Amino acid sequence: MSRKPLKGQHHVSAITANAKENYRFYTEILGMRLVKKSINQDDPSVYHLFYADERGNPGTDLTFFEIPHAGKTYHGTNSITATSLRVPNDKALEYWLNRFEEYKVEHDEMTRHTGRAILPFRDFEGQRLVLVSDEHDNGVSGGSPWKDSPVPVEHAIYGLGPVTLTVSRPELTEKVLTSIMGFRETRQYAPLVEGQKPVRVFETGEGGSGAEIHLEERKDMERERPGRGSVHHVAFRVENEEDMKKWVEHINEIGLPNSGFVERYYFRSLYFREPNGILFELATDGPGFEGDEPFETLGEKLSLPPYFESQRPQIEANLKPLKTSK
Predict the structure, then answer these.
(1) What are the pLDDT digits (tens) for 99-132?
(2) Which tens digit of pLDDT belongs to each residue from 256-281?
(3) Which neighbouring-strand residues pair with 132?
(4) How far apart are alpha carbons 102 and 94 in whole angstroms?
(5) Does the pTM of the predicted model rise above 0.85?
(6) How far is residue 229's CA from residue 164's CA, in Å, rounded to a whole number?
(7) Is the pLDDT of residue 74 over 80?
(8) Do you know which CDD domains this protein is assigned to (predicted)?
(9) Do the domain assignments include residue 37?
(10) Is residue 1 situated within a structural domain?
């Protein structure tokens, strides 16, 4: 059965030890909208928070599992080492540089990186993030900025950009990206660390910032030990449920160990690990986040998929209250 190409990044999910401070940073400083306050469906005792554009369009979600006792991250290889967030143009990066100074956000200098202006920064737990300018981007479109954001719409974050994978055996990850997932290698650029090999860029679908994986080889590092401020997995966009079933069949035919079809209510998923151990997810573009609360009040209440609703009293009793309503 023919499958449609993956469309680009769907979401990136990371780890925080402090949901309250996480909510403050991503909404008040970065100006993203909390479009869903839910639970980790594999561990309903912890929050799963979804930040995105105005309605959580696919390709715009940066999500966090709250693990209160998560330890420090020890950076290393075989991990997702940078998550990019798209802004409209180079001028927006100047706005953000001033904003980071105002709010004392740890950041690097603006620079140019494989043809784009970027501004690397870290959140309060050391999460490795990069603002990337879309000034010269002609690939997959981003989302729609949240009009009630504290950040002006003309400078707002409105999607996920390139995701960097740092691995010890890049030839194994490359094979999964190209032979199994349909990515194509488009270019290389100078190594991020002197003495290392060039970083290779792979893209899918319409390509561009929102559909790129950057593959970095590092043999001089130990494996990353994840904790607060690390990334849990990256998800890629599948058109719909019908196409997802074709991807499940495809992955099974290859013999790659995987989760099989998973119902997440807000989307349908498939999980597997590439050979260096990084967790990949395929996720459908829909149904989206408005099936259980209206657009106007997204993220203001604790949302539970229907199959968890009978457990609501117990779940709410185990969660530390997090005020997200106006």
Answers:
(1) 999 999 999 999 998 999 999 999 999 999 999 9
(2) 999 999 999 999 999 999 999 999 99
(3) 86, 118
(4) 13
(5) yes
(6) 15
(7) yes
(8) PcpA_C_like (cd08347)
(9) yes
(10) no
